[in-house]
Amino acid sequence: MAEISAKLxxxxxDKTGAGMMDCKKALKETEGDxxxxxxxxxxxxxxxxxxxxGRVAAEGIIGSYIHTGDRVGVLVEVNCETDFVARREEFKxxxxxxxxxxVACPNVEYVRVSDIPPEVVTKxxxxxxxxxxxxxxxxxxxxxxxxxxIQKRLKELALMDQPFIKDQNISVDExxxxxxxxxxxxxxxxRFSRFVLGEGIExxxxxxxxxxxxxxxxKKEAPKPVEEPAxxxxxxxxxxxxxxxxxxxxxxxxxxKK
Length: 258
Known about the structure:
CATH class of the domain at 56-116 and 158-196: Alpha Beta
CATH topology of the domain at 56-116 and 158-196: Tetrahydropterin Synthase, Chain A
Structural class: alpha+beta
Strand order of the largest sheet: 1-2-5
Oligomer: single chain
Largest sheet: 3 strands, antiparallel
Number of strands: 5
């Protein structure tokens, strides 16, 4: 494969208006042939999408997607240029796909890498610089490794860089650009919100058995303490003679002799 020089990428960018990464990918796919790369970009809708990016997109719709089980939901705003396109089924289908993508990617927090605040980038870099596997590496090498890891991490946070769930060969960004080519207008994913049922609520932990008893109106009695058996007291033995007083014999009256 021919080496893709920075000059070749710039020439393609100037001719098509496509982004640097898109141009580089197109040249790789066409082995450095700039004319074929232009055709490749046009087939993907990327060249026409780049030309429309500067146009105002203030129309569109707010779409939603509720995941099975009603535990996760998403609202997403996708903009286009006219209300006519916003009403088209192709545009509505795109919005549904984007909302579904957000539900499927719980780690995604931003639309684009450029939307990530500098303080988040700084925090991520600090975490990576403190990794144990970099402790013994030279400073220059550490910086290079960390930069690569940071770029990867930031893409994990960005919606537009995610592989499309219905076609892993394209990204969400490419999905949108194809819609631009099809519908002929600038289309932008502006913002989204994710809702997870019960998120942020501290749940009270209860004993299941006690909860069932409480619902049944029963009160659980505390176990009674076990009493120690009383010490046996030895009783004095009873003498047989003293057991009962001797019975008195009835006195016999003397019989009178006649």
